[in-house]
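Feature request disguised as a bug: please show the residue count (486) next to Isomerases acting on hydroxy acids and derivatives in the output. Example input:
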Amino acid sequence: MSAVVNSERIPNNVDLASDRKLQRALEAWQPKFLDWWRETGPEGFQADDIYLRTAISVDHEGWAHFDYVKMPEYRWGIFLADRVADRTIGFGDHLGEPAWQEVPGELRNMLRRLVVTQGDTEPASVEQQRLLGQSCPSVYDLRNLFQVNVEEGRHLWAMVYLLHSHFGRDGREEAEALLERRSGDPDKPRILGAFNEPCTNWLSFFMFTYFTDRDGKYQLLALAESGFDPLSRTTRFMLTEEAHHMFVGETGLLRIVERTCELMKRNANEDARAEGGIDLPTVQKYLNLWYSLSLDLFGGEISSNAASFFASSVKGRAKEASYDDHRALDGVYVIDVPHVPHVPHVPAAGGCAVTGWRREEVPLRNAMNEVLRDEYVADSQRGIDKMNRVIEASGVSFKLSLPSRRFHRSSGIYAGLHFDVDGNPLSKEAWERRRDAWLPTASDEAYVRSLMEKPVFDPKQMANWIAAPAKGLKGKPVDFEYVRRG
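Example output, currently without the count:
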């Protein structure tokens, strides 16, 4: 097992002290990171004591320590999963070759792009969620928000370490840029669309941690297969922390659904809003929004970049060992590609409805984004099934559902086209008429936010619109003082 040094300025298990140049560079980046955290991290809670877990090793049994800490004093460290002896590459054109400990020159730009794109998502989500603490439904949830936030910060450190240690001056410049972009900034936005979306209420937060962090899980699983061993080891440990983020999302949504059903049964008309709850049709609208935004994060259905990543052995499929053919040279993936009539002087898909479909046998390597998206869709459905079981058990007649993967898409073969939630084509005019039935409106947003105007800082209380969790964290009761206000 790799030795962990927690006494240094930057906790790590990469023997940082043996490379003084790298250590000095990262120590010079550290105050800039802290400035970014104070500026864009959770607003109004920097002086509070938060009961947080902190990574202290990569041992599966004892990798985290729980205690009170002020967030700016959190020990963000650099941790890579232990090296697998004699590891060989498991897919692509380099199948069977020894894993690379250094970046192959011809793959430098490709790998840097992957690291930067992954790294950019980590601070973005902190920025998106910075004001949520001021409307928290409970101290338990407030603590979970901050746990997610500090660990996204640690994941940023993980990517910055790779940039500094393996990509020279270009990597150092990219690390600086990760602190300069801002979520939703019109001049310097984050790289991926979902990470520029406002996340201004707790329903959106739970949807984000359920759907968008789940995309993160599958991206990390694919990168964990990388022939570049430091990237593989980094993402393998990140997955350990990411699991809690999805737990926060799934249990948060289950608690909302449970409480909504309780409030509906309390009301003669089964009107959750009349009882101060979030009605299920509104839950469905936010589900439609964040699921479709998260689907876009996988990239185009037919992608030469995805083919290059796989061929070059830099990004594989989730759990590559479960597949039989690790070169994927002969297989195809069948995709129905939409046909849009050409109208002179009108941009492609500009207001035109899909008039037909062309069934295309896409070379499997070019469909790797869709292969990964398939896994994601199936995994997302499992949680929706749990929510529907809660609804059914309460006696309420309603069923949540994932919309078609064609719905509300901004990338890939469906970008610029319009479909209903079942995947049926619509004209632009029909879409404009009906979109408010499927996506949150300004009125929906105002209502949801009206429920969350006053934060709940008493550990023994819970907001009316969400059920209490079944149990607390790390053996503590639900009403434990997870946050000590300064």
